[in-house]
Specification:
Layout: H1 2-8, H2 11-31, H3 39-56, H4 61-66, H5 72-96, H6 102-125, H7 131-154
Helix pairs in contact: 1-3, 2-7, 3-5
Length: about 160
């Protein structure tokens, strides 16, 4: 569905809507909503994250927001597995839909060293990101991604 959205929907309007939706969920979780990773919630968040991740590259927040009150190791393990599997599925769907070309491959090559650096730093830094810091980090990264997506869509 995400690859179909990329092919058929206006990119900027869709990106702004996705970013707005993520910010709305984030604000709701700050005020009163306390999401829990129950089986039905995970099905909805996984589906939404898969579609949104493929269509707008911001697929982590739906699942991350469900896990925001969990322990650091559980959040990291769950998101690592989810984002790896989801990324592979998104790439396959986008490639099958003819949505991957040299600009995307070049962009990936430019960003690969930063991904490697993040992976190398993640081991030593994880002891500082315990339960007390995980929720603020999850909320900040989700909100930051949403704001950047909205800005990219509008400007």
């Amino acid at each position: 569905m995400g690859a179909l959205a990329v092919a058929l929907l206006p990119r900027d309007a869709f990106g702004a809507a996705v970013g707005g939706f993520v910010l709305l969920c984030l604000l709701a979780s700050l005020v009163s909503w306390r999401p829990r990773p129950t089986a039905p919630a995970l099905v909805v968040a996984g589906f939404a994250g898969g579609v949104l991740g493929t269509a707008s590259s911001i697929g982590g927040p739906p699942v991350a927001l469900l896990y925001q009150h969990e322990t650091g190791p559980r959040i990291r393990a769950t998101l690592a597995a989810y984002l790896t599997f989801g990324g592979v599925l998104s790439l396959v769907a986008l490639a099958a839909g003819g949505q991957i070309g040299w600009p995307q491959v070049l962009g990936s090559a430019v960003l690969a060293p930063f991904m490697a650096a993040g992976f190398a730093l993640s081991g030593p830094l994880r002891r500082y990101l315990d339960t007390r810091w995980m929720r603020p980090c999850v909320l900040a990264l989700s909100g930051g991604g949403a704001v950047l997506l909205i800005a990219r869509s509008l400007f």
